[in-house]
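2024-03-11 09:14:02 DEBUG pipeline.ingest accepted 1 chain
2024-03-11 09:14:02 DEBUG pipeline.ingest length=512
2024-03-11 09:14:03 DEBUG pipeline.predict start
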Amino acid sequence: MSATALPLPQRAAQLSLNGLFLAQVARQPDQPALVCGERQWTYRQFNERAQRLAHQLQAMGLRTGDRIAMLSENRPEYVELEMACAKLGLVLACQNWRQSDEELAHCVRLVTPALLVHSARQAAAVTRIDHGVNRLLDLDSGAYEALVAAGQAVEPEVEVDPETGLVILYTSGTTGLPKGALISQRAMVARSLVARIDLGAQPGETFIAWAPLFHMVSTDSAFSTLLSGGKLIVMDGLDVAELVRWTTRERIGHLIVMPGMVDQVIAEIERTGARPLGARLVGAMADLVPAVQIQRITELYGAPYCNSFGSTETGAPPASRGTLAVGAFPERLSKLPNTHIQYQLVDEDDRVVADGEPGELCFRGPTLFSGYWANEEANARDFRGGWFHMGDVFVRNPDGTLDFVDRRKYLIKSGGENIYPAEIERILMAHPQVTEAVVVRKPDPKWGEVPVAFVARKDDSLTGDALKALCRGKIAGYKQPKDVVFIPFEAFPRSTTGKVKRHDLEQMLPKD
């Protein structure tokens, strides 16, 4: 049902993402909204560009619900396009440029976009892949700026239902290909509220979007910042020296540092003698960061560490309310559940378990995504019973905290990226000399976890280097197996049903 089809009282109760943003434009039109390098746009200037772009997208024939594929590194135009989509009820499918051509083509074709917007840096990939899109727009050709300049700097007359999709962010697929998670405007507004209620975000804070905007950590926080009247600094990827320099000029709200880079930030500050102005909160995903790094980064920024557990599908919830104190060497990483959500822990038959017993976390709440695009099988499985089944197993403690136990869906989290073994195994199993291939996770001091492949081969002529080369170009670089371990076919530990037991394989990993 569209917003205009709702009864008048319900229409009046709708919380509009664009409306919340326009309230900030009216409140502080001349305050900085968006910064990139030496360039800066006030709230008025940024809004006018988004308005102009929205009118031009309408002139192209795009209407509510249509998809635009975006293939670009972080840049101001990315955020402009996101806001223009919010004004019109369009959906921006944020493509992961780290993916292989095969993965990228799948992700673009999955959402059948009416327009593919790309940067010059990604033009070669657009040419190589079979994307099936008739209309292309190069951000660096001059056509984009001409388009914006020709638009009207007035609000488009579109009433958008908050349940309308806003972005599609891609997640790793259990069967080997990425899935597109549709996140609505309602979910994005709710994620902004969670930042305020549970994470202590304050109006007017500064956020640095260095992580790719095709990930929820930057896109969620970018919208939250703009809806709260803050300053959004857009960086073209991770440049540790530049990131540290920004933190010496600005006090940051939530400074995102991910597994694999915390030690680099610490080293840069200690090497240069930089004096950060501090932060309200620092870090994410504490489980994958060495305790000594958590201790040091909190001391350097004078901010507690965010002991988070969320997902692309759920946002920061279900368990990101807790923090680790400044200077603490954490020995326990129990999570605090977020407020304004419901959760339950269930066994393999979806029966609620007692406190102290492990169970899969099932989630309900306003931050939840709207399902996987064009994937009814996954939606039926993961939303069964009216709950979203996360695939993550926890134990609830007597004090109400949650301890992470394992992943029911075997998942590798490497430097903040999700990797499913099937993504790698399908490639390895295609080799004619491979009779079995199973990928497991291995602890890694830098990335938290990395994938390692156990392989049975027909003869000794097949090498690990050959299998690594087979993976290159077919899957993203961060998914490449870091090592290949050859064992006989009969050495794979199996259950009574013949399924390989990955946890037993983990115990067989060579010791460094």
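2024-03-11 09:14:41 DEBUG pipeline.report The chain has 16 helices and 25 strands.
2024-03-11 09:14:41 DEBUG pipeline.predict end
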